[in-house]
Design a protein that fits this description.
disordered C terminus; alpha/beta; about 300 residues; globular; about 45% helix
Length: about 300
């Protein structure tokens, strides 16, 4: 049966590493290798990783002498040494059910045109608090790539955690490496580009646990406004290249603006100006006004909703 290369990129997640690695080793799909990367952690991650150096499932361990500053650079480093056609980026602070690979690989192997497959995920806070659960209304299904982009990646993304997904390395070889230019939302572009090259398999089973905590980069990026700058730039870029329609862009901007209004006053003036300019850039005048006035009529209700998502 096909092999899967499981890439575990780590930075200062020592307290979660045992659970993460063990959840991979416990997979009922036996055909996999593990590649562990550490991006110059300052905690005791290295000692924990070394415990697995001679495990027969561990194909490589790579310690960076200097922090790369980029999760996506670590992805590339792992991909360069992996030996399999299928790849799973198993984030070091997440964990999964033992049947994760079995379910997704069986789905992928039934359709040679599938570029990736993914499951549903719990979002976990603290030790065991379930904050939210993603959903798909069928036990499983296949979606054509362009339809997947329209229906599942806009205005928000159905794939919000790399640990949910197993993908074909051959499809990765067909996409640009532009996703590496982003610090926070490069994975959004990654899945969009890959979707352009085939179908997507989705299982409705909840098999992944996505952990949110005080070291979580995405939560801090939302509160600082940095993620808004990146995401707005990304979608303007997609529109300029005609990968999405004007309607898609407008829908995304409306969705993004609601979240932005919840934190606008906490941002520095220069960042507020930069973000506001991106909201109005390329929009028709009437649509720019729609987005502007949304802030007045919904900001109080939206702030409560947004805080519940990121707290």
């Amino acid at each position: 049966m096909p092999m899967v290369s499981v890439i575990i990129p780590n930075y200062n997640h020592a307290e979660y590493l045992h659970q993460r690695i063990q959840s991979v080793l416990d997979q009922t799909w036996p055909h996999f290798e593990i590649i562990i990367l550490d991006d110059c952690s300052t905690d005791n991650s290295k000692q924990i990783i070394e415990e697995y150096r001679y495990h027969d499932k561990v194909g490589a361990i790579i310690f960076n002498p200097v922090n790369s500053g980029s999760t996506f650079k670590q992805w590339i480093k792992g991909i360069e040494v992996c030996k399999s056609e299928f790849v799973w980026i198993a984030e070091s602070d997440d964990w999964c059910e033992p049947t994760f690979l079995d379910n997704i690989m069986n789905g992928l192997l039934k359709d040679d045109t599938c570029v990736f497959g993914y499951c549903q995920s719990y979002i976990i806070e603290k030790i065991n608090h379930i904050k939210w659960i993603s959903n798909y209304p069928y036990l499983d299904g296949y979606v054509e790539g362009n339809k997947f982009i329209k229906d599942f990646m806009m205005p928000s993304q159905a794939i919000f955690n790399a640990s949910m997904v197993v993908w074909r390395r051959s499809a990765f070889n067909k996409i640009s490496k532009e996703f590496m230019d982003y610090k926070f939302c490069g994975d959004w572009l990654f899945w969009i580009e890959m979707s352009m090259h085939g179908n997507v398999f989705i299982t409705g089973k909840v098999l992944n646990y996505f952990r949110r905590h005080d070291k979580d980069v995405s939560g801090k990026a939302n509160l600082s406004g940095d993620s808004f700058l990146e995401e707005l730039n990304l979608f303007h870029s997609l529109y300029k290249r005609k990968w999405i329609s004007y309607k898609d862009l407008f829908t995304f901007l409306k969705h993004e603006y609601i979240a932005y209004k919840a934190i606008e006053k906490s941002l520095k003036p220069a960042k507020r100006v930069a973000i506001s300019q991106l909201f109005s850039s390329e929009l028709e005048h009437k649509d720019a006004l729609v987005i502007y006035y949304m802030g007045f009529y919904s900001k109080h209700a939206v702030k409560k909703i947004f805080n519940s998502l990121i707290s």
